[in-house]
Design goal:
Blueprint lengths: L2 H8 L8 E5 L6 E2 L16 E4 L1 H10 L21 H5 L10 E3 L2 H6 L3 E6 L10 H15 L3 E5 L3 H13 L2 E6 L5 H9 L3 E4 L4 H15 L9 H6 L2 H10 L7 E5 L4 H15 L9 E7 L4 H7 L25 H10 L4 E4 L1 H15 L5 H15 L8 E6 L23 H16 L5
Parallel strand pairs: 5-12, 6-7, 7-8, 9-10, 9-12, 10-11
Antiparallel strand pairs: 1-2, 1-3, 4-5
Helix pairs in contact: 5-6, 6-7, 10-11, 11-13, 12-13, 14-15
Length: about 425
């Protein structure tokens, strides 16, 4: 064996990632990827990840898309995990969710080219959080750690629990009050240690950051946030490819902390930078509930600052009053000529039912928020009927049925054909006069 061969065997296995450094976009400070750091020590802003895009362009051309895995690592050149064993243990069945051409909902709203990016089918936890949590878990493995924590309104917790079980590490989930019970039950069933904390998300997040500093425990959406956030770009990569490399005219998505919408924006930029698609015409529109709309309010008021609020909404997964990436979302929306809107809880649940009745997709309140804002944007003329529109369905409604206003339960009838025939006629008569939702 040559000296060079022996040296190569001693090096850790590498991925095709072209990540180069952690960077602070506010002050320009740069740090090595190997450093376990999430916030700039000079200005306390969350760090981002830089890439060598010239190298990424070459590497993307070397391996045809058809030969790549149909999962979140499909375009690993533009993802931040450089350790191959860590990547191999996470996300092999995650990502590449369906992009569905809408028929029923499109007809209801008067849109001819409406698509639904359906992360309610995501594996393993039925929400888009699988994308971001996969990066955080891979980063923990890359660092050689065996534990991970998170603060969660629901979906982050279930994703962390599921991925941690698969990776063989210990998960700790901290939930704020008013948590959705089913999501906590799912976490516990997956083996996570769950702690409910008396406080809203923003309060619990603040204390978890202190806990991380005191204990050294890595938190998926705090200390690992630069890596965690990069997973959101995979949605942009997928939907553009699924549209045959023609970026949509509009993307409508709900926002809580702002991770997804801001990184979809970054992903679109990167696709254009490496020459895979023209994306600068795509507008991003933000959906939030009226009871927690700090990002939408700032966008509509042409304000540069996010004014924190105390959430009062049944859309618990969107109940983040001080969104960490809110300023990035504002920049993304404004630079792309998009807008935002907020809707009531009543509209949210109405549109959960509308989506279910027209497309057979049961979503949670975050998805209902997206559809309600989509409907509003059509009504006010923001969306042209013939433009290509993608609405993002971020999570599955099976985990939030406890929160949905109960519809009357069917009354009991006798078990004989005559009674059943009468009941059938009653149902047909009632349905004939009912709205499509």
């Amino acid at each position: 064996m040559s000296t060079d061969d022996a040296r190569d065997q001693q090096q850790p296995a590498r991925t095709r990632s072209c990540a180069t450094a952690l960077v602070c976009r506010a002050c320009g400070a740069r740090f090595a990827l190997e450093q376990s750091i999430a916030f700039c020590p000079d200005c306390n802003r969350c760090l981002d990840i830089d890439f060598d895009y010239a190298l990424a362009t070459r590497r993307l051309a070397e391996l045809p898309v058809a030969e790549r895995p149909h999962n979140i690592w499909r375009f690993e050149e533009l993802l931040p995990i450089t350790d191959a064993p860590a990547q191999a243990r996470v996300g092999e069945f995650s990502g590449y969710t369906p992009l569905i051409r809408s028929r029923g909902l499109a007809a209801e709203l008067g849109l001819s080219k409406l698509y639904l990016k359906d992360d309610s089918t995501s594996r393993p936890s039925l929400s888009y959080k699988d994308r971001v949590v996969a990066m955080a878990i891979a980063r923990v493995l890359e660092l050689g750690e065996e534990e991970i924590g998170c603060v969660s309104t629901g979906n982050v917790g279930t994703a962390v629990a599921a991925f941690a079980a698969r990776a063989g590490i210990s998960p700790y989930v901290f939930y704020p009050d008013r948590l959705e019970p089913m999501k906590a039950r799912v976490c516990r069933a997956l083996g996570a240690l769950v702690c409910q904390v008396a406080g809203n998300y923003d309060e619990v997040n603040r204390e978890c950051r202190r806990l991380a500093q005191d204990t050294g425990l890595e938190f998926a959406n705090i200390t690992l946030r630069p890596f965690y956030a990069e997973g959101g770009k995979t949605m942009a990569f997928e939907l553009v490819e699924q549209l045959h490399w023609r970026a949509p005219d509009h993307i409508v998505t709900a926002a809580a902390g702002g991770t997804l919408s801001s990184r979809v924006h970054k992903g679109l930029i990167e696709l254009q930078t490496v020459g895979m698609a023209q994306t600068d015409h795509t507008r991003i529109h933000i959906a939030q509930p009226e009871g927690c709309d700090p990002i939408a309010s700032a966008i509509l008021a042409h304000d540069s600052d996010i004014h924190a609020c105390r959430p009062t909404t049944a859309a618990h997964s969107l109940a983040i009053g001080a969104p960490g990436d809110g300023h990035l979302v504002i920049d993304a929306v404004r630079s792309r000529g998009g807008t935002a809107a907020a809707v009531s809880d009543g509209e949210i649940f109405e549109c959960i039912d509308l989506l279910a009745a027209t497309e057979g997709i049961l979503t949670e309140p975050a998805g209902g928020t997206t559809i309600a804002v989509l409907r509003k944007l059509v009504a006010d003329g923001t969306l042209d009927p013939d433009e290509v529109v993608v609405a993002v369905i971020t999570g599955n409604g099976l985990k939030t049925l406890d929160e949905h206003p109960a519809k009357p339960w069917p009354s009991m009838i006798e078990c004989d054909s005559e009674a059943m025939h009468a009941a059938l006629e009653d149902l047909k008569h009632a349905g004939a006069g009912a709205p499509s939702a």
